[in-house]
Design a protein that fits this description.
alpha/beta, three-stranded antiparallel β-sheet, 14% strand, 346 residues, six-stranded mixed β-sheet, 40% helix
Length: 346
C-alpha cells in the first residue's frame, strides 16, 4: 500500500469537494478494465485491528477484484484525526472510532456512516497486584490516548460505573504500538487496551495481566467503529464507494471466519509487527465478540444510539444536538455492493 504522511488540520470543519461522478456499480469489472483509485484514512502505522481490513483486502486481492486500485492510505494515530481527513476531503473514506464520528455528527459536520463494527473491544488491564476492579483504580496512573479520544471517552464512561471521575486517576498518553512497547518495558502498568495489544505484551513478557471486568452497561450498549464518508460523496463518488463497500464486506467476512485464523494472523503480524503467536491468540478473541460481524451492516441501531447516549452522559455531546439514527447512517450503497458480490457476478 502507499502510505502517505500528512499533517491533520484538526480544527478544520469546512468540507472540500470530493469531485467526480459515477453511476451505480452493478457488476464486477471485466478483466483488463481500468481500476479506480481510492483514498483512505486509517489508524496507524502500524495499523491497529480496525484498520487491518486494508491489509487483508490487499493480500487477498479484494480491491482489484472489486475494480479498485490498492488504496492510497493516510495514517494517523487516533480516530479523531482519521475522521478529520474525511471531513476535510483529504480522504474519501475511513473506518474510525464511533465516538469521534458521533461527536462530529452532533456538531453538524455532514458525514455519514455507510457500514460499521458493532462490538467494542476496549478493556482496562493492570499488572499491579492491588488492581482487581474499577474502584481499585483511584489514584493510579493509567494510559489513554488524548482528551476526547476513543480510549479517553471509554475510560471516562468506565470509571463512572464505579462512581469515579477522570480527575480521580493520573493519565499518561500511550496508545497503539507505543502502548505495547511501554507496557512490555514496564513503563505502563495499567491502561486501556485493545485485545491484540495486551496479547502482544503477554506473549513477549510471559507475564499475565489482570483484565478488569467489562461493565454490561458499556459492553452491551457501546458501538465501536464506523465507516464514514461525506454525505455529498454518496452521490458524487457512488461507483467508487459501492466498490469499496463490497471490498469491506469481503474483508470482514474473511476476518470473522474461524477457518482463516492462521492466514489472517500472518497478515496481521506482518502488518502490525505483533508476534505471530500473539495474533493467533488475539484473533479468536476478536471473533468471539463478533468484532467483524456485520449484523445490521455493523450499525445496529441500539448500539449506535447507546454509544451516543454514553457520550451525552459524560458531557461529550449535548442532548439537544444529538442526531437521530437515520441522520447518522446511510445504507443506500448496499444494494449495489451486494449485487457485486452475488454469484451471478462472481
Amino acid at each position: 500500500m502507499k502510505a502517505m504522511a500528512g499533517a491533520v488540520l484538526a480544527s478544520a470543519l469546512v468540507l472540500a469537494s470530493c469531485g467526480g461522478g459515477g453511476g451505480a456499480a452493478s457488476s464486477q469489472p471485466s478483466p483488463g478494465s481500468k481500476l479506480l483509485p481510492i483514498s483512505i484514512s486509517a489508524i496507524g502505522p502500524p495499523p491497529i485491528y480496525i484498520s487491518l481490513y486494508i491489509d487483508v483486502a490487499e493480500k487477498e486481492g479484494y480491491f482489484k477484484k472489486m475494480g479498485l486500485e490498492d488504496p492510497s492510505v493516510r495514517y494517523f494515530q487516533n480516530g479523531a484525526q482519521v475522521a478529520t481527513e474525511v471531513i476535510t476531503g483529504a480522504a474519501l473514506v475511513a473506518a474510525t472510532a464511533t465516538q469521534a464520528s458521533e461527536i462530529a455528527m452532533a456538531g453538524g459536520t455532514p458525514i455519514v456512516a455507510i457500514a460499521g463494527m458493532n462490538s467494542q473491544d476496549f478493556f482496562v488491564a493492570s499488572s499491579l497486584p492491588d488492581v482487581h476492579s474499577c474502584s481499585d483504580l483511584k489514584g493510579k496512573t493509567l494510559s489513554y490516548d488524548q482528551p476526547n479520544g476513543a480510549r479517553d471517552l471509554y475510560l471516562e464512561a468506565y470509571l463512572a460505573t464505579c462512581h469515579l471521575k477522570i480527575s480521580d486517576v493520573q493519565l499518561v498518553s500511550s496508545q497503539n504500538a507505543a502502548l505495547i512497547k511501554a507496557a512490555t518495558a514496564g513503563q505502563v502498568t495499567t491502561g486501556v487496551f485493545h485485545i491484540n495489544e495486551l496479547a502482544s505484551v503477554e506473549a513477549t513478557t510471559h507475564k499475565q495481566w489482570t483484565q478488569l471486568a467489562r461493565p454490561p452497561s458499556i459492553q452491551q450498549n457501546e458501538h465501536y467503529g464506523m465507516v464514514i464518508v461525506q454525505k455529498s460523496s454518496i452521490r458524487s463518488q457512488k461507483e467508487v464507494l459501492t466498490r469499496f463497500l463490497a471490498t469491506w464486506i469481503l474483508a470482514t467476512r474473511f476476518m470473522q471466519d474461524p477457518k482463516n485464523v492462521n492466514a489472517f494472523a500472518k497478515i496481521a503480524s506482518d502488518a502490525t509487527g505483533d508476534p505471530l503467536a500473539a495474533d493467533r491468540i488475539a484473533i479468536p478473541a476478536f471473533q468471539k465478540i463478533g468484532y467483524w460481524d456485520q449484523t445490521d451492516r455493523g450499525l445496529t441501531k441500539a448500539r449506535v444510539l447507546g454509544s451516543l447516549k454514553i457520550l451525552e452522559g459524560i458531557g461529550a455531546v449535548k442532548a439537544s444536538q444529538a442526531p437521530s439514527y437515520n441522520q447518522m447512517v446511510d445504507f443506500s450503497l448496499y444494494p449495489g455492493a451486494e449485487r457485486l458480490l452475488s454469484p451471478a457476478n462472481g
